[in-house]
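Run log, item B.
One chain of 229 residues. Sequence copied directly from the ordering sheet:
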Amino acid sequence: MNDGKPIVIFGISQLADLARFYFQHDSDREVAAFTVDRDYFESDTHDGLPVVAFEEIASHYPADEFDLFLPISFKKMNAVREARFKQAKAMSYTCASYVSSKATTWPDLDIGENCFIFEDNTVQPFVTIGDNCILWSGNHIGHHTRIGSHVFITSQVVVSGACEIGNNCFLGVNATIRDETTLAPGTLVGMGAVITKDTAEDEVWLAPRSVRARVSSDRIDSLSHKSVG
C-alpha cells in the first residue's frame, strides 16, 4: 500500500488541501504536485506546488515514479470518485492510502488503495476495508466488519461488529448500524439513523424513525450533503 513514491493529489478542493496537510504532517510520503482536469485548470501552482492538467499527468509524473491520491467527495453516491479511481488504475497508477497516526488500528488491518482514514477512528481487529473509501473523523468500526469499495463514512458513526457494508454506501453523521447487519450496495443511511436489519440495494434510510425510502439520484446527493453536517 505504501511503497514510498511521491504523490500527486487530484484536485484543488478543500479535500485536496486536507490531503496535502495530512500527508505533509503525518506521513513519510512527499506530495509532489496537484492535478486537475484541463477544463478546471486555473493556475500552474496551488499551495506552493505545481499543478498539471490530468490529461498530461503521465508525461510529467509517470506511474512508475509517482502515486496518485484522489480525495474526491461522495457525489452521486461515490460514483464520481469510483470512476476516477478506475481511470487512474487503467493508467497503471498505484493510488496511495492515508491512515491517521491518531486513529486506533491493529496490525491485521486489511485496507485497499486510495483510502482516506482520518483521526480518532477506532478500527477493531479483523476489519477489512476495500478500495477508495473515506472514513471521516471519530467513527467506530466493529470487529470482523467488512467494508466494500467506494464507501463514504462521515463522522461519529457506529458500525457494530461483523457487519457487511456494500460498495458505494454512504453513512451520515451519528448513524448506527446494529451488529451482524448487511448494508447492500448503494445504501444511503441518513444522519442519526439506526439500522437494525439488512437493507436492499439503493435504499435510503432516514431518521428519526429510520424509515426506508426510495428517492431519485439527485435527491440522494442532496440528502448525503445534508448528512455530512
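Observations after the first pass:
- The CA atoms of residues 145 and 162 lie 4 Å apart.
- The radius of gyration is 17 Å.
Flagged for discussion on Thursday.
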